[in-house]
Amino acid sequence: MNGPEIEELLALFPGEPLAVSVVPADALPEPYRNLLVHEHHMTVTVEAHYRGPVDVRVLQSRRENSHYSREILLIHRSTHKVVQSGIVRIDLSLTSPEVREEILAERTPLGRILIDRGVMRRVHPTAYLRIEPGNRTEEWFGQRAVCYGRLAVLVLDERPAIEVLEVVAP
After folding, report:
1. What is the pTM for the complete model shown?
2. Distances in Å between the alpha carbon of 99 and those of 31, 62, 85?
3. Which fold has domain 6-168?
C-alpha cells in the first residue's frame, strides 16, 4: 500500500523543514522500535508505554472540501509531558457523522475516537523515520534531540481514509 509523502504532510502546516531520513524498522533503537513498529494506534501504544491516558492538543488545523488536517501533540494527562507529535490528514467523507463531529471538536485523540466508536480500521505503517534535531522538533518536545517516527495509512471499512506522520518524543 502506498503511503503518504512526508513533504505533503509537512506542507499542510509550513514551518522549518525537517531533516528526515527513511530507515529500516530494524534500524530503530529501542524504545522507539517498540513504540513505532506495529499495526496499532499510537494513542494506545503511548498510553501503555507511559502508563496513563493522553490528551490531544491541536496546534493548527485546516479544512479543504472533505479533507480535514491537523498538527497535534499528545500530552500525558498526569505528567503533562509531550509524548508524541503528529500531522494527520483525514478524508471526512469516509467517516460517520458522529465520528466526524468528534474529530472536528478537537478534544479527543483520533485513535481513541476510532476505538471508542468501534470503527473497523487497520493501521498500515509505510515508512520509519529518523529526524535530526531542529527548531520544529524543539518546539514540539522542548529539547533538541534526534527523534523517530513513522508514516502510516489508516484504512477505515476497507478504504484508505487517513494519512499520518507520527513522531515519538525523544
Report:
1. 0.93
2. 32, 17, 22
3. Chorismate lyase (3.40.1410)
